[in-house]
Amino acid sequence: MTTALSEEIRAWLAANAPGRDEVPAPGTPEFVAFAQAFLGRVYDAGFSGISWPVEYGGRGLGQPEEKAFWSEAAAYDLPLGAVFGIGLGMCGPIVRELGTEEQKQRYLRPLLQGREVWCQLFSEPAAGSDLAALRTRAVSDGDDFVITGQKVWTTGAHYCDFGILLARTDPDVPKHRGLTMFIVPMREQGVTVRPLRDMTGASDFNEVFFDGLRVPASAVVGGVGGGWNAARTLLVLERLAVSAGLGVDNAAEGPLSFGGLAGRVRARGLLDSPIVADQLVDLYLAARAADLTDEKLAQEIDAGIDPGSRGSIGKLLKARLNCVAADLAVDLLGDADLDEDLRHDILQSRKLAIGGGTDEIQLTIIGERVLGLPREPQADLAVPFRDLPAN
Length: 391
Ligand SMILES: Cc1cc2nc3c(=O)[nH]c(=O)nc-3n(C[C@H](O)[C@H](O)[C@H](O)COP(=O)(O)OP(=O)(O)OC[C@H]3O[C@@H](n4cnc5c(N)ncnc54)[C@H](O)[C@@H]3O)c2cc1C
Prior knowledge:
By secondary structure, the protein is an alpha+beta fold. It folds into three domains: 2-117, Orthogonal Bundle (Butyryl-Coa Dehydrogenase, subunit A, domain 1); 120-226, Beta Barrel (Butyryl-CoA Dehydrogenase, subunit A, domain 2), CATH 2.40.110.10; 254-370, Butyryl-CoA Dehydrogenase, subunit A, domain 3 (Up-down Bundle), CATH 1.20.140. Helices cover 45% and strands 13% of the residues. The chain is built from eleven helices and eight strands. It has helices spanning 2-16, 29-44, 63-73, 80-98, 101-112, 227-244, 258-267, 274-302, 311-333, 340-348, 359-370, and strands spanning 118-121, 137-141, 144-151, 162-168, 179-185, 191-196, 205-216, 220-221. A hairpin with a 2-residue loop joins strand 2 (137-141) and strand 3. Helix 4 crosses helix 6 (227-244) and helix 6 packs across helix 9 (311-333). The longest helix is centred in the C-terminal third of the chain and has 29 residues, at 274-302. The model has no long low-confidence stretch (mean pLDDT 92). Flavin-adenine dinucleotide is lined by residues 86, 119-123, 128-129, 153-155, 351, 354-355, 357-358, 360-361, 364.
């Protein structure tokens, strides 16, 4: 099945994938509009949400079939991952897993069709790794909740229609217990989005301020007070998506891929050096280990086995691979050989090692939840949130 589908996808992409010159500059409104229109065409061709249930717009197939699309897509410079990675990899899946029937009917198909774009509103200035310390409040008021607070590092907030937000609904219980997840509209009064510039010069991240945004109780995902469970489920889905390369564009052929880097090293005549050859072999092995881990996780999911926290292994291997490849590129090619694409990817190479939980946090998760090592001491687990010192 997968082989026939892969051939179908390959033929479709060969006929329909835009050439590099046709895609507007990343980060521009034209780029987002182009990505939305292209995902619409992917949907019409039957390749958007291949593993999602048929009743919500998907094709009802398995994880290997879903992965087949992204593997084939990685050969092209598509704009999909940059705009839809968070929606397709996290927000949609959490609505699919924990949302009400009404939420699933309302939100999933437009996401798969590219008509609505989503962001993830978790991190705050004083709540990143310690996410449960977040301070954004959602106060119950009649049939509504009123949201006030600040989020940060929100990728894509400036062009998104909806976000998955984590907020504190009960400060009188310990920090993990008083949280609730919401679907929030991003274009309403009461939401202010301010761009942040990263070291590549791009402004993909934002600060987002909520100033009394009113949402109905029907916007809650996973129950009032169920936010920590919902957030953990979303983060597991995120790590699995990152590990599997779902929603990631051009990973297979990019300048920091094994093939991309080996090609440049060969072109510079460096392959004769046994030291350089050794370094490339190490990179190849790291890439294979990451790929085989993904494959194993995908097979397990398909067989109905929940990989749970083992998704963190795949995410960690991918993040480290990026960093190793970037360091190798700088080491072997030197400043003179770094063209704009390579420079850009080197500057971006640390992002996977931070976003979705830093490498240190993944190591703790693997230690505690995969290997069963003793848990890190946490003094604040039983203390009501309002009694914890701020920051
Ligand atoms: C590319 C990118 C995209 C992002 N997109 C989003 C988004 O769309 N939405 C969103 O909500 N957030 C987003 N983030 C934010 C991201 O989730 C946080 O940056 C991340 O969780 C780390 O939090 P922090 O930046 O507050 O760092 P901190 O938590 O302050 O960590 C600082 C350093 O301390 C270390 N550290 C902290 N606690 C521990 C511990 N217990 N043990 C060992 N070491 C520890 C960390 O590993 C890190 O090295 C994004 C980040 C990046 C880089």
